[in-house]
Amino acid sequence: MKNPLLEDFNTAPFSKIKVTDYKPAIKKAIEITKQEIDEIINNPKAPTFKNTTEKLDFTGQKLNKITSIFFNLNSAETSPEIQEIAKEISPWLSEFKNDMILNQELFKRVKSVYDQRKNLDLTPEQSTLLDKQYKGFSRNGANLNGADKETLREIDAKLSKLSLQFGEHVLADGNAFELHITDEKDLSGLPESAKEAAKLIAKQKEKVGWIFTLDYPSYIPFMTYADNRELRKKLAIAYGKKGFQNNKNNNEKVVLEIVKLRQQRAELLGYKTHAHFVLEDRMAETPDKVTSFLQELLEKAKPAAIKEFKQLQEFAKKRDEIEQLEKWDSAYYSEKLKKELFDLDQELLKPYFSLNNVIEGVFTIANKLYDLNFKEVFTIDKYHDEVKTYEVTDNDTNFIAILYADFHPREGKRNGAWMTSYKSQQIFEGVNERPHISIVCNFTKPTENKPSLLTFNEVTTLFHEFGHALHGMLANTTYNSLSGTSVLWDFVELPSQILENWCYEKEALELFAKHYKTGEVIPMEYIQKIKDSSSFLEGMQTLRQISFGLLDMAWHNQDISNVTNVKEFEQKAFRGTQLFPDVAENCMSTSFSHIFQGGYSAGYYSYKWAEVLDADAFEYFKENGIFNKEIAQKFKDHVLSKGGTEKPMILYKRFRGKEPKPDALLKRARLV
């Protein structure tokens, strides 16, 4: 039988793939890549940029394609079988990566080209590739002795297994919980849409009544609107104790093992801590810079946050005689206070944000800024019926990209929202191969009577992920390892976060915020209220983000070999940013997937770092018009299309004409 994953294909052949195809395909693709690497090593000619650096960048194309399909499905459409395979193949891939990086003969050739770099006539992109490639080896153990190399292999294999395990535990605890309500009184305060969605979940599970889960579209409305404080508490505690229960999904040991192994790895490579290792390859450069960046923001945000918390506390006391505001009261009273202060009800906004209209809106904005056109096509294979596929062209009908979009929660799909790619852009043998990009979200499903209606938060989430997608789709570089979102980690959020700004602008909202029944454009006073309330409780929000950044740095910027209690360690890290009383049954670290499963370890600060960039960059648009073609072209030419071909600050300054300062962010957040 032919294995569809080993055939030549353009778009992923989802419908032809059987679960049993993955292991043999990955095994074979690893062999093919090894042969490609052997060719480079055994080349009798002296190492050159072309026969070594460039050739190495173009190896492993088949392996990359297959693994991107596999790991994307493990996030968006997993199953126990896929999770088992992931456990098996992750060590293979980790071992293969180590085989390559610790291959002395290969490193010799790479180093030989690197040592001649000053005498080579390289373009900025070629210089970046050479530098990145050399560091990829040296930062991952190529200069170590034999015994240390073996230790590194063992550490990497363990880490790869542990992060998978961490994610599985979080998913399993999330899926295991449901809040089953049979008394309609307990639904008091909830909007119709939330009740309908909960009824639908119950129906699917063949139960009477309403079921609320820990998936965002179910969890957030309940926490925001349910009048029953005890049930809010029950749901919030369940959400906060993922990975922190006395069951087989407990992540406390996993967390401690991951951070200790990361520290051991960093020391082995000659770095003081994991944070020192990570940040050497970021815009921020050092842990000290990150810490002082977070502390500076903390200084500005904390007084505002304390003031806002007091205001919320007083409001809850006056309204419902709540003596002590708890975490499960936060979203509920914030929404009530917001309504009182701005007369803004999220439920009033939702009819203006049907998912289809918002998709059309983001497409229109991409067209006005970057001349892109999106046409839904039905000939591209997909992994689930709910996925939509689009062909992206420019105004001259040149093919730009393929876009997959997957919008609704289901079992086997992890929470949250993300952008990913099935094929990176590159110029190979004279052909500009265009990218295949995907965005994955978890928005409320349509019901029997209503289309999928988004909260304003979900609208900004869609714009955020679409901003990442633009970065991928508009990529125009020679090498796929520098293409699209392959940029320094604290630069990657700029394209996503800047696009969120259009959600607050009248000119943009009028393009798509239309009532799903009447087609009426969102009233001007609602737009004004959205703008006025955009910095509502921003001090508390900022403090929350800073607290996550500080927790991340606490885990990764010190010797943690004596830490035995995850919860106690976390409490210490949160001390300077804590507003709400601690919840004994909850622990954030055990489900902090960004840093223990995703790639954000020692990098969570980058959300705030990128906010400084995005506020500064959007101010440039605001000064010249939010659809100013000239500025959009500069952003496309110097940021979106350039990927990681040069240092981010060089690219940013080329676009903006100067370095960013936090002033625009502090002004936007009304913290000054």
Sum this structure up briefly:
With 672 residues, this protein is of the alpha+beta class. 55% of the residues lie in helices and 6% in strands. Among the domains are: 130 residues, Endopeptidase. Chain P, domain 1 (Glutathione S-transferase Yfyf (Class Pi), Chain A, domain 2, Up-down Bundle), CATH 1.20.1050.40; 64 residues, no CATH class.
3D architecture notes:
The chain is an alpha+beta fold and 672 residues long. Among the domains are: 130 residues, Glutathione S-transferase Yfyf (Class Pi), Chain A, domain 2 (Up-down Bundle); 64 residues, no CATH class. 55% of the residues lie in helices and 6% in strands. It has 27 helices and nine strands. A hairpin with a 4-residue loop joins strand 4 and strand 5. Helix 9 packs across helix 14.
Supply the key terms.
single chain; 672 residues; alpha+beta; Glutathione S-transferase Yfyf (Class Pi), Chain A, domain 2; two-stranded antiparallel sheet; 27 helices; globular
The strands making up the biggest β-sheet line up spatially as 3-4-5-9-6
Oligomer designation: single chain
Content of β-strand: 5-15%
| Rg of Cα set | 25 Å
User: Quick one: CATH class of the domain at 14-143?
Assistant: Mainly Alpha
| Spans where pLDDT lies below 50 across 5 or more residues | none
CATH architecture of the domain at 14-143: Up-down Bundle
CATH topology of the domain at 14-143: Glutathione S-transferase Yfyf (Class Pi), Chain A, domain 2
Overall pLDDT: 95
The CATH superfamily of the domain at 14-143 is known as Endopeptidase. Chain P, domain 1
What percentage of residues falls in helices of 4 or more residues? 40-55%
- How many helices? The count is 27
Number of DSSP strand runs: 9
